[in-house]
Amino acid sequence: MTSLRARAVTGGILWAVAIIVLGLTGVSSYLTSQTQARFVEVVETRHSQAVVAVRNNSDTTNDLVLAIGDLVYQVPLSGQYWQVETADGGLYVSPSLGDARLPRPVGRSEDLQRREFAGPDGEALFGIGQWVTVSDGSLWHVQVASSLRSFEEEQVVLRNTLLTAFAFVSFIGVLGALTQVAVVLQPLNKLRQDVSGRWEHEDGLEVAGYPIEVAPLVNDINTLMERNRDIMRRSRRQAADLAHAIKTPSAIMRNELDNLKMEGAEVQEAIDALDRLDAQLKRSFARMRADGTDSTVGVATNLDTALGRMERAFQALARNEGKTFAATYPQGLRVRMDQSDFEEVMGNLLDNALKWAASDVQLDVSERDDGQIMITIADDGPGIPKEEIAKATQSGQRLDTSMPGTGLGLAIAHDLIHAYGGKILLARDEVLGGLAVHMRLPFASAKRAD
Fold first, then answer.
1. Is the same domain home to 257 and 356?
2. Could you report the per-residue pLDDT of 113-140, keeping only the tens digit for each?
3. Following DSSP, what letter does each residue of 133-191 receive, concatenated?
4. Do 251 and 347 sit in the same domain of this protein?
5. pTM exceeds cut of 0.85
6. For the CA atoms of the chain, what is the radius of gyration?
């Protein structure tokens, strides 16, 4: 499934990268052209100064070195050079050239000639040369050259500066895109959280709390939730009505069979068959309730109330049988399970534990770090062999026919607990030695009662 957040962030980043690349290319090109123009302008200025010096000192050529007096021309191989040549072959050069010479002029045009060439030690130079007429009417060729190294170094510095600046802009742009996406998707995140916790919203989601673009979706969700609640309620009511309708003829048949038995008739097989029928019907109705249970809509059981009743009832039953029953549970816990279903599960499991226990039954409730409540019922009876555990929770068959019962208590508990998103695990209790039934049930969000 594609994430809207991922798609929005990816699209924003790609668009930002495209804009940044185009901007970087445009700005870099502009600044490069400006730097190049400034470099050429400096060389042209140096050439103009050299031309002025030649015209003023053409009759005293020995003073040319002093006339073109920029100090960079005095340093050997400084990267700044000049060369003056007369029409009759006289040659004057800057001390920075040493024994090297600049290329000779091509033709005798009085227009400025710009060109790049190799200078001393193969250094790349940019030069400007021109034939000029001095005071005596003769032609002199004045040429200055400047190393391209400084221009290239300036270009490198410029590129690094631009890359740093645009990297920062890119970071700000991506951060802005993430922030914008987070702000835009916030209503959808809120909707997701509200829908995930919709068992706390019996009256539906509050439409006014969402933007107008999301409001129609919220209305549709509210409508769907309400229809779902109605279906669940009707299903559970129909299951309850059907169970009640069948219990009456079943009770009549049981009374008739008991009367016949008291009169000496051989009806035990019929009574056993009716017991099995009642047990299967009981589990079938439990499954129907489980299938018709929406574990995410407004159901919660206060354990203080439910377990309090269980504790009082089973302590009395245990005393009657000469056994002990102890219950330990924190105050204020609530599980996300219908109270009647929870009490049926607990009643079946505690009844089984008391029936099979030698002397002790313990009920322990604790909160887990993973957001669930652990309920453990343990006894000191014989327990269930590992190979029989699956049979006990799924098939509903009686594992020991010497004890009364239908053998469906664990199966019904298994069905109902799983219907509410919980889990049930059977194991041998390490303390009492008998069967330990571990149940994990999700707690209602209002975990502590007010």
1. no
2. 999 998 888 889 999 999 998 888 888 8
3. E-TTS-EEEEEEEEESHHHHHHHHHHHHHHHHHHHHHHHHHHHHHHHHHHHHHHHHHHH
4. no
5. no
6. 49
